[in-house]
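Hey team,

Filing this mostly as a record. A colleague (T.K.) asked me to run one chain through the structure pipeline before their review meeting, and I want the input and output archived in the tracker in case anyone asks later how it was produced. No errors, nothing strange. Just documentation.

Input sequence:
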Amino acid sequence: MYSAKRQRAVFREETLAGNCTAADVSPAQQATYGVITASGGVKLYHSRAHNGTNWDEVTTPITNAECLSLAYQKHSGAMSLIIIVDTTSGEVKRYTTDDEGNTVSVATTIGTGAHGTVCVSPNGMEYIFFRTSSSNIQRVKRDPMGNVITSASNVVTGNVSDDEIACYWRLGVVYLIYTHTTNGITIVSSSDDAETFS
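Output structure:
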């Protein structure tokens, strides 16, 4: 008679400010998504449940953020999360956290620009892309320990719209998706570990 009431729950829906979100899944299958708050902070939400219904909120110490991208460093098996942030000062910065965002590393400036994104290969190589004010896309490549292997340099020259960028690694190929000012959504790829794209 009362068993139906036992499983009921009421959740207050929280309205989140900001218009930028990002998400990834950890090696332990923990889903994480991040949002930018109205004050320019970064909040992370983690779900350990198999169905993604219960989320734990963590307010990171990151400030002056406009947008973000997330990727777990899957190679080490650790719960190390890479957070790429577009800042209000026009820089793209990289943070890492090993404790779900309660503390973060010192910011590393990747370059001057916006629309930063990150993807990580299964062997731990990290590929960071961002749009410059010259309508180019630059790439920074880092090894699994976070050391810079290839510094910021153009991989797409000109005609890149002031819009979000996405990347992913699949079967040894790095894919980069962006909006071309004339041709619209464009996908380029690299089979030489993100050194050149076509």
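Quick notes for T.K.: The longest strand covers residues 148-156. The mean pLDDT is 89.
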